[in-house]
Amino acid sequence: MFEFKGILFAFALLSISINSFADTVELKLVSCHVSKDAYITDLVDAYREKTGIHIDVNTGNSTSAIRDVQIGVADIGGTSRYLIPNEKLETGVKLLPVALDALAIIVHKDNPVDSISPDQAKAIYTGRIRYWSELGGGDLKIEVYALKNKISGNGRMLRELLFSNTDKNFHTHRVFDSIEELEQALTQNANAIAITGVSSAYMEDVKIVALNGVKPSVQNIKTGDYSLYRPLFLTYDPHSPNIESVKDFIRFVLSKTGQDVMLSNGVVPYREAMSLVKKKTRENDTSYPQLVGKI
Fold it and tell me: Looking at the domain covering 5-101+230-283, what would its CATH class be?
């Protein structure tokens, strides 16, 4: 299981003041689909409304949100996964945890199944449960939809949270290049099941299945009652020529206005979930690389 000690250290760094400055430049931001839907689009709009500064937002994935920052194509990234240890393409990039999101189990809106257990979810993804009748549904075959890329934010964190194994192979019926394609395909298939970010799920015409009877609401994520939660990060290069502009945007993200934008989109601001982070720190003894540097 991933380690929260580095994140706890990261939160301590959030209290460090970020100085304002006179010359602000337009920034380029690359975001994964989940982060973009969860908070980035609305935050960028609110930042522009307050400051008049435009940020150019491009949709990528969690990997490009890290690696585009590393090579200087983007100034900021929005990612839903950690850095991959010892991956050269991700060296020098810093992660700043800004919110907690959840992975939501989604099915077609007409599917009668309302809740499953974590063990049942594992059994579905490994092929040990193959029919909806085993879950209280109809006598139809379950079709598992997943992402092709194991190192995507969704693919990597799903494997980490359910199996504690980021290389776990799934028993799938269809794989997709993007979470957008997956979500759209699921709306057309009454037998399909998939897992996506909760903010993205609420924007689609799908049914969100509870986990042990618990729905991924803001309150349930904040308290840890819903167990499939994960951090959302902003990525940046501390040596970027535009670092002062990056700092200004980060300061806005961490402000009350920024936190309110996150809450309105169904994600938990990181500052509001420190008891949850401390709980995870106590539960896990394995080490994980330091996530962020001093801003």
Answer: alpha beta
pLDDT at 200: 77
* Whether pTM exceeds 0.85: no
Report the alpha-carbon distance of residue 151 to residue 170 in Å, rounded: 14
Whole-angstrom distance, CA of residue 249 vs CA of residue 48: 10
Q: What is the pLDDT of residue 279?
A: 54
Q: Give the residue extent of every domain in the chain.
A: 5-101+230-283, 102-223
Give the pLDDT of residue 53. Answer: 92
- The reply to whether domains 5-101+230-283 and 102-223 share a CATH topology is yes
| pLDDT score at 128 | 96
As a whole number of angstroms, the distance between CA 141 and CA 146 comes to: 16
* Exposure string over 154-171, b if 16+ CB within 10 A, otherwise e: bbbbbbbbbbeebebebe
Instruction: Give the chain's residues under pLDDT 70.
Output: 1-24, 273-295
Q: Tell me how far apart the alpha carbons of residues 103 and 160 are, in angstroms, rounded to a whole number.
A: 12
The residue type found at 122 is K
Please state which CATH class domain 102-223 belongs to. Answer: alpha beta
Give the pair of three-digit tokens for residue 154. Answer: 């969704």
Give a three-class secondary structure readout of the chain.
Answer: CCCCHHHHHHHHHHCCCCCCCCCCCCEEEEECHHHHHHHHHHHHHHHHHHHCCCEEEEECCHHHHHHHHHCCCCCEEEECCCCCCCCHHHCCCEEEEEEEEEEEEEECCCCCCCEECHHHHHHHHCCCCCEHHHHCCCCCECEEEEECCCCCHHHHHHHHHHHCCCCCCCCCCEEECCHHHHHHHHCCCCCEEEEEEHHHHHCCCCEEEEECCECCCHHHHHHCCCCCEEEEEEEECCCCCCHHHHHHHHHHHCCHHHHHHHHHCCCEEHHHHHHHHHHHHHHCCCCCCCCCCCC
